[in-house]
């Protein structure tokens, strides 16, 4: 039984990509299961796009093993490409063709002909609310409309697997929410999705999440698991001298992150006894300060994971 039969649509082991002296992806292990929305979270330059291009068969790895839909890559790249959809953050369709012409072209590329192509094209126009725009040139559309057209094009051939590289980076918040509803509709229908993002609210919506930093996987699990297993403490500080307290805490060894949220400070420490330790530090500066424990969020997980990785990298050099 191969990994595909066992429910794993993507399996990568030791996946590495070097560009000269730059290690863009460094020994990545990844499992993506059928019909789940698997998120890739990381800052620009963390290796997300490079990994997705290797998983699409567009880029050969320097080392490691990949199986996608049961096929080894890059050997079976051409076979795999017929069963996957790929959407990038840059609009990649033709600006000087209409909505209908773009979709008609993509149907032909994927071998859809005659009545089958017409049925699928009409279904895409309806599902992604493009019917009234069918004659409009793609280049004249808004960001949200282009995004819906790009998604319709990416799923025209009903792929088993859809890979999306920061697909919502150029659209407004309402369009982002609508887009994510469309992604969950696809997952419910059995499509597997791997979505890279740098938005915390989007990452929190994923079934599972891989956090990348400098090409390495630094955390992996469901958002709920990652938040529940966060080491240390997340605390809120209410004080009069917010900026002074923030500067002092930022210099503390056990403080992983400190951010001002409105008139209070959100502090992430690596200590389990964080509240007593932090109260003592803060009240030495502002005797009236209030310190309380708050629930961890995904941004706390991200800060803790990338900070810990940064420190371990420095220790190794």
TrEMBL record:
CDD domains assigned to the protein according to its UniProt record, in alphabetical order: ABC_DR_subfamily_A
Keyword ATP-binding recorded: yes
This protein's record includes keyword ATP-binding: yes
Coiled-coil stretches: none
Residue stretches making up the ABC transporter domain: 10-239
Any one GO molecular function term: ATP binding
UniProt entry keywords in alphabetical sequence: ATP-binding, Nucleotide-binding
Name of the protein in its database record: ABC transporter ATP-binding protein
Protein species of origin: Dokdonella soli
């Amino acid at each position: 039984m191969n990994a595909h039969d066992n429910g794993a649509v993507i399996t990568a082991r030791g996946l590495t990509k070097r560009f000269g002296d730059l290690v863009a992806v460094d020994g990545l292990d990844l499992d993506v299961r059928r019909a789940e929305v698997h998120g890739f979270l990381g800052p620009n330059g963390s290796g997300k796009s490079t990994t997705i291009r290797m998983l699409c068969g567009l880029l050969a790895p320097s080392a490691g093993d990949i199986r996608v839909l049961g096929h080894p890559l890059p050997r079976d790249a051409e076979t795999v490409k017929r069963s996957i959809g790929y959407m990038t953050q840059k609009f990649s369709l033709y600006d000087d063709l209409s909505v209908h012409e773009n979709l008609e072209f993509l149907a032909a590329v994927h071998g859809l002909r005659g009545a089958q192509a017409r049925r699928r094209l009409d279904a895409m126009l309806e599902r992604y609310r493009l019917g009234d725009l069918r004659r409009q040139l793609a280049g004249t559309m808004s960001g949200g409309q282009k995004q819906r057209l790009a998604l319709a094009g990416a799923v025209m051939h009903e792929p088993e697997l859809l890979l999306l590289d920061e697909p919502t980076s150029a659209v407004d918040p309402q369009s982002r929410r609508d887009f994510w509803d469309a992604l969950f509709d696809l997952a419910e229908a059995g499509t597997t999705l791997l979505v890279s993002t740098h938005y915390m609210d989007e990452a929190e919506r994923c079934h599972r999440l891989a956090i990348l930093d400098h090409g390495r996987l630094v955390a992996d699990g469901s958002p709920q698991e990652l938040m529940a297993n966060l080491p240390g403490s997340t605390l809120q500080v209410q004080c009069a001298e917010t900026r002074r307290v923030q500067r002092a805490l930022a210099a503390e060894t056990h403080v992983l992150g400190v951010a001002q949220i409105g008139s209070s400070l959100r502090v992430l420490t690596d200590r389990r006894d964080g509240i007593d330790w932090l109260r003592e530090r803060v009240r030495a500066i502002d005797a009236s300060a209030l310190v309380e424990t708050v629930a961890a969020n995904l941004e706390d997980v991200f800060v803790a994971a990338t900070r810990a990785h940064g420190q371990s990298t420095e220790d190794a050099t």
